[in-house]
Design brief:
The protein contains 14 helices and 23 strands. With 486 residues, it is of the alpha/beta class. Helix 3 (107-122) packs parallel to helix 4 (150-175). It binds ligand BES and zinc ion (ZN) (2 copies).
Length: 486
């Protein structure tokens, strides 16, 4: 999709369709009040006038998230219309001295980025297995602005497009079926990122390396699967000076059957999405490279399946992890933390970052507690949690804090090993999973670490907002906006 800044009067811009916003549901200046009233135009609605080649959409306010939502309604309404070019209403920068800000980004720029994101995100569909797909046909969007120069406007639109496309890239990975998307395929895709961007490098490590590194928790999860485990390390290095080193660590379970603690049929369905954390970490590298962010960014992905079979690891096993901590397995379905604990240990030693953020579809408890649209932000550093939440959610993603407490900590005690991998009964499951990971965070990293449980928002059976059913690409936008606002 292309976004074109037009400084001509909107009436002379030629496009297949014109979009008009109805702010606060006020139809007075719409020019089509009569027909819109007749058609029952109401709050939150969209009204297509095909004869006039105009579409009206209700706009709650001019916040970026309201714009994304409004744009998604337009894209949905125009699907199947074979509309290729669309022109947007003129946007004006606020007439305040600073021009208004949204996070660290000027309000008008945030609005333009949000419009581009809205189009790119809601234009997405995963239809490679459909015989008769109906993809979005919009190719060009004309945007006119006042109070903002062309170069700035183009940069803001480009930023939104890049962030949207990186999110869609992640959705494609998450939606791909487990038969196709195994650890080898993820390593190939990571390698492709390094081929595509000059300042991205990729190294991937297989079973022998993991053995040499004593990553026995990761290896145990992999034991019954037919594919090699992969530890993938992507690095983006900025051309100019780096403002810091950030490491993302992603849970990449290309399938989670639960292992011998087998999931139910319903519980297993959609567990192709258990690679969402790793996929998001790949999307962040892609976005960072295209946005030329001024940070050195590392993504460390732990990729495997969690399967059953005679070689499967078992409840009752005791695993010696990379850092030396021993773990009693009491549930093979709490596998994500076993992969992550070795990857977190490796990343601290090998990358030595300023911040280390893991992303994982880690617990069903997080979905129960926070719902389908919100990720949990967990860690030891309250200020970092708050900072991340506030900056990340300017992306439109929802984040909320889940806090540790000392009463939950002993629930992970094991009678036979240093720690057990799950708490029977599961109360406080999202936090106890975070506490498990915390056992593998070294003292000097305690305040530099965040764990994002994206189990809720990463995948949805039903479409919501500008997300289609399936993978959403959760984590990419939040982390990128956090970096942009830092
Ligand atoms: N991948 C799942 C978590 C999950 C559940 C993600 C639902 C998305 C939707 C994870 O590996 C898991 O199975 N966790 C267990 C942990 C339990 C055994 C302590 C869970 O949440 O039930
Ligand atoms: Zn599991
Ligand atoms: Zn899992």
């Amino acid at each position: 999709m292309n976004f074109i800044v037009s400084d001509r009067d909107n009436s002379v811009v030629r496009a297949d369709y014109e979009v008009r916003f109805v702010l606060n549901d006020n139809l007075e200046n719409s020019g089509d009040k009569e027909i819109l009233t007749m058609m029952g135009f109401e709050k939150g609605s969209v009204c297509d006038l095909p004869n006039a080649r105009r579409i009206y959409v209700s706009l709650k306010d001019t916040n970026p998230e309201s714009l994304r939502i409004a744009v998604s309604k337009i894209v949905k309404a125009l699907k199947g219309h074979n509309v290729k070019t669309v022109k947007m209403p003129r946007l004006s920068a606020p007439a305040t001295a600073e021009g208004g800000t949204y996070g660290a980004i000027k309000e008008i720029e945030a609005a333009l980025s949000a419009i581009a994101e809205g189009f790119v995100l809601s234009g997405y569909s995963f239809d490679k297995y459909k015989s008769n797909p109906t993809p979005c046909t919009i190719e060009e969007v004309y945007v006119s602005v006042s109070g903002c120069d062309r170069v700035t406007a183009e940069a803001a639109l480009k930023r939104g497009r890049i962030i949207g496309e990186a999110t869609n890239y992640v959705r494609d990975i998450v939606n791909e079926i487990p038969e196709v998307y195994n650890s080898i395929k993820m390593a190939d895709d990571a390698e492709k990122l390094a081929e595509e961007y000059v300042n991205v490098t990729c190294r991937d490590y297989s079973k022998d390396y993991l053995k040499a590194q004593d990553m026995n928790a990761f290896l145990a999860v992999n034991q019954a699967g037919p594919y090699d485990p992969k530890l993938i390390h992507l690095t983006y290095t900025p051309r100019g000076e780096s403002k810091g080193k950030i490491c993302f660590v992603g849970k990449g379970l290309t399938y989670d059957s639960g292992g011998l603690s087998l999931k139910t049929g319903n519980g297993m369905y959609n567990m192709k999405s258990d690679k969402s954390g790793a996929a998001a970490a790949m999307g962040i590298i892609k976005a960072a490279a295209e946005l030329e962010l001024p940070y050195e960014i590392h993504s460390v992905l732990g990729v495997t399946e969690n399967m059953i079979g005679s070689r499967a690891y078992k409840p009752d096993d005791v695993l010696r992890t990379r850092g030396g901590v021993t773990v009693e397995v009491n549930n093979t379905d709490a596998e994500g933390r076993l992969v992550l604990c070795d990857c977190l240990s490796w990343a601290q030693d090998e990358v030595q970052p300023d911040y280390i953020i893991d992303m994982a579809t880690l617990t069903g408890a997080c979905v129960v507690g926070l719902g389908n649209y919100t990720a949990g932000v967990i860690g030891n550093n309250y200020d970092l949690q708050v900072d991340f939440k506030l900056k990340a959610q300017t992306s439109g993603e929802n984040y909320t804090l889940l806090e540790f407490n000392d009463h939950l900590r002993p629930l992970l005690d094991s009678k036979i090993a240093d720690v057990r991998n799950s708490v029977p009964g599961g109360t406080g499951g999202a936090i106890t999973a975070g506490l498990f990971l915390d056992k593998f965070i070294k003292e000097e990293y305690k305040d530099k670490w965040l764990h994002l449980d994206i189990a809720g928002p990463a995948f949805s059976g039903e479409p919501w907002g500008y997300n289609p059913a399936g993978g959403t690409g959760a984590g990419v936008r939040g982390c990128i906006y956090w970096l942009l606002n830092k």
